[in-house]
């Protein structure tokens, strides 16, 4: 049995007067975010931006930058002020050569980031594949679980999602590979993952799908994921999340290092949006917010849609 994690520390800022009030606030935030995601999924609004807050020492792009409480708080506030709809807090790197960390280490890493993110009033997500960490994050105020393990590494994650009512991102690729047609391979994976989630009591309107660009895929397969987005959107009618920001694929395409990949990230995000993504996960929030607004506005013009 996994070890129990301690409850989150009380919020140091004007906390809700009771646990009931906190639950009401969290439910309101989750429902509002769900409505926003649904609008973006339908194409009625621009894709939402999920800003990345890595509290890890070894993430590929910003490892070690936000490991202290003050720096994590500044980053959370910046993400919110720059217009992100979601702050995604993660305490374990999932780059190819990274190692898993103990529950207590991951919890300690994300504690301050979660608290600071909730204080901003932004919807908060926790990037983890561990049910105990997800449960802890929801207790701390998170309304979304970004499971890079696709709820397959530990089936208990399905129970956490069902019991908490949190929105859940099911990502492909942390432990899976693709063979043959990319669209077919992703579809087979998502069909089973969705079936298992629904069987555990997860509400269908809570599920978001992520093809896992950069995870256990060749460059050709990563590129094919973009082509697969419309088919996945049509087949499952569930919102799609795409994370391409600063990834090594963009480095190989452009020859740029991690810090020089913003233009490539914006280009890829624009393509993802045009292909039907409802959420774009990014490091550079403000430029992506602007890019998604313009992409949506110009898409409305070219399609003859008027809002």
TrEMBL record:
<dbReference type="InterPro" id="IPR006390">
    <property type="entry name" value="DHP_synth_dom"/>
</dbReference>
<comment type="similarity">
    <text>Belongs to the DHPS family.</text>
</comment>
<comment type="pathway">
    <text>Cofactor biosynthesis; tetrahydrofolate biosynthesis; 7,8-dihydrofolate from 2-amino-4-hydroxy-6-hydroxymethyl-7,8-dihydropteridine diphosphate and 4-aminobenzoate: step 1/2.</text>
</comment>
<dbReference type="InterPro" id="IPR000489">
    <property type="entry name" value="Pterin-binding_dom"/>
</dbReference>
<feature type="domain" description="Pterin-binding">
    <location>
        <begin position="47"/>
        <end position="293"/>
    </location>
</feature>
<dbReference type="InterPro" id="IPR045031">
    <property type="entry name" value="DHP_synth-like"/>
</dbReference>
<comment type="function">
    <text>Catalyzes the condensation of para-aminobenzoate (pABA) with 6-hydroxymethyl-7,8-dihydropterin diphosphate (DHPt-PP) to form 7,8-dihydropteroate (H2Pte), the immediate precursor of folate derivatives.</text>
</comment>
<keyword id="KW-0460">Magnesium</keyword>
<keyword id="KW-0479">Metal-binding</keyword>
<feature type="region of interest" description="Disordered">
    <location>
        <begin position="1"/>
        <end position="31"/>
    </location>
</feature>
<dbReference type="InterPro" id="IPR011005">
    <property type="entry name" value="Dihydropteroate_synth-like_sf"/>
</dbReference>
<keyword id="KW-0289">Folate biosynthesis</keyword>
<protein>
    <recommendedName>
        <fullName>Dihydropteroate synthase</fullName>
        <ecNumber>2.5.1.15</ecNumber>
    </recommendedName>
</protein>
<keyword id="KW-0808">Transferase</keyword>
<dbReference type="Pfam" id="PF00809">
    <property type="entry name" value="Pterin_bind"/>
</dbReference>
């Amino acid at each position: 049995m996994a070890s129990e994690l301690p409850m989150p520390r009380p919020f140091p800022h004007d906390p809700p007067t009771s646990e009931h009030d906190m639950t009401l606030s969290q439910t309101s935030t989750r429902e509002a975010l769900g409505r926003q995601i649904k609008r973006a999924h339908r194409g009625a609004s621009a894709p939402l931006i999920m800003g990345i807050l890595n509290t890890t020492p070894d993430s590929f792009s910003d490892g070690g930058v936000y490991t202290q409480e003050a720096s994590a708080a500044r980053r959370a506030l910046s993400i919110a002020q720059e217009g992100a709809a979601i702050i995604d807090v993660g305490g374990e790197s999932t780059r190819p050569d990274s190692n898993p960390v103990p529950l207590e280490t991951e919890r300690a890493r994300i504690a301050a980031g979660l608290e600071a993110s909730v204080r901003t009033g932004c919807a908060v997500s926790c990037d983890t594949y561990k049910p105990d960490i997800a449960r802890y994050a929801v207790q701390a105020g998170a309304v979304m679980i970004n499971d890079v393990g696709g709820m397959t590494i530990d089936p208990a994650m399905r129970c956490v999602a069902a019991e908490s009512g949190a929105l859940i991102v099911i990502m492909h690729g942390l432990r899976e590979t693709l063979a043959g047609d990319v669209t077919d391979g992703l579809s087979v994976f998502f069909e089973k993952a969705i079936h298992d989630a629904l069987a555990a009591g997860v509400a269908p309107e809570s599920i978001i799908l992520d093809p896992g660009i950069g995870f256990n895929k060749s460059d050709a397969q990563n590129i094919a994921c973009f082509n697969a987005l419309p088919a996945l959107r049509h087949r499952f009618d569930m919102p799609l999340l795409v994370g391409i920001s600063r990834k090594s694929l963009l480095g190989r395409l452009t020859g740029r290092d991690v810090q020089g990949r913003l233009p490539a990230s914006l280009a890829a995000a624009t393509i993802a949006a045009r292909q039907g993504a409802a959420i774009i996960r990014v490091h550079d929030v403000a430029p992506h917010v602007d890019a998604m607004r313009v992409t949506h506005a110009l898409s409305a013009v070219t399609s003859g849609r008027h809002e």
